[in-house]
Amino acid sequence: MNEPTADVLPERPQALRSRRVVLPGGERPAAVHVADGRIAAITAADEIPPGTLVTDLGELALLPGVVDSHVHINEPGRTEWEGFATATRAAAAGGVTTIIDMPLNSVPPTTSLAALAAKRAVAAGQVAVDVGFWGGIIGADARNLDDLAALHGAGVFGFKAFLAPSGVEEFPHVSMDVLGAAARRTARMGALTVVHAEAPSVLALAPPTVGRAFASWLASRPPAAETEAVAALAALSAASGARLHVLHLAAADALDDVLAARDAGLPMTVETCPHYLTFTAEEVPDGATVFKCAPPIRDSRNLDRLWDGVAQGLFAGIVTDHSPSTPALKQIDAGDFAAAWGGIASVQIGLPAVWTQARARGHTLTDVVGWMCAGPADLVGLAGKGRIAIGADADLVIFDADASFLVEPSMLRHRHPLTPYAGRVLNGVVLATYLRGRRADGDRPPRGRLLER
């Protein structure tokens, strides 16, 4: 491979040629021509105009950049957990060229115009990939409903709410009544509302988490909490006409309601995450708090059923829910599941994690691109992202689909190199990441943009 190494693609015409270009219609040999940061043409592999600088990738795959619509960057306010510089460098190293930042766990949370302005100000000049922002809906007292229209006008990609406690006091969860009032407003705006869907009434009846046993954490967040919440959201979508999106679905039992909502034509969608498609409860050791997340990783039968849902097209996307914290908050030494922060850090390795499992189940790179690139881009309305198509941004990933690697903490670019994937062999190696035709990975100056809806 004649791998491009320049920070900026040359002024002369440039084309990347591969026998494995993953296009919206499938994988085939092609040449992708880049000009002014966009894809100018897609031709047969041998249709190269004279004077074009050609990078011949051979059998290496050329993918569109991954779009991760579920990332917690935590800055400002909790930059010791993560930050724009570290999170976006990790994203670029993993083939992710666009992320949408969640409205928590920053302080202040992105629940007002002033908070959005503060977040944009601290992000400016730091981001190695393109970054957009979610707004938030908070409080049983409906405290920021009057802020939603202004946030929408300022370009947030939608609004996040929790039905159960979020884990941080400045982002309180909402009742279904408040969510209903918010949904009626977002429906009039045409805005997307994304929801952490666990029913607090079910969680209140579950046994509390105690000590180092993962089984105790699992029992405290039963599947019924998700199924009840998803059913309630489907009813709300039907009543309000609001676009509702279920975040990080872990319980495959809820897929029946997802399928029914789809068949009824409701504007409700759902996502899942690489960790729910990779790990099983049976393999999580007691005290291994790097596996703690909410909802929790469930059993092997549930994992297989989630993959059945993926194969049926029930998910709008697969996104990481990258949510890191400090080793102390993660209770790495004590291994206390009750006290540990819940969140899995994986923005750098989501693509190979999903490809590893997908290939073993007979899926293709075209499938993975649909789930991780085009799907999330379509969810948030970024038509120029997540696909290799004429006019789209030249966000490209050179990917060795047949190589494998051992996940070692030293290779991770996010602030605290803690991840449940450590020590695991994954398939698929990201060799280079381009953002609008420029290299974005490595230690290059950050060239990402702050996006508006």
From TrEMBL:
Cofactors = Zn(2+)
Q: What Pfam families does this protein map onto?
A: Amidohydro_1 (PF01979)
Q: Does the keyword Cell membrane apply?
A: no
Signal peptide annotation: none
Gene Ontology, cellular component aspect: cytoplasm
UniProt pathway annotation: Nitrogen metabolism; (S)-allantoin degradation; allantoate from (S)-allantoin: step 1/1
Q: What is this protein called?
A: allantoinase
Organism whose genome encodes this protein: Frankia casuarinae (strain DSM 45818 / CECT 9043 / HFP020203 / CcI3)
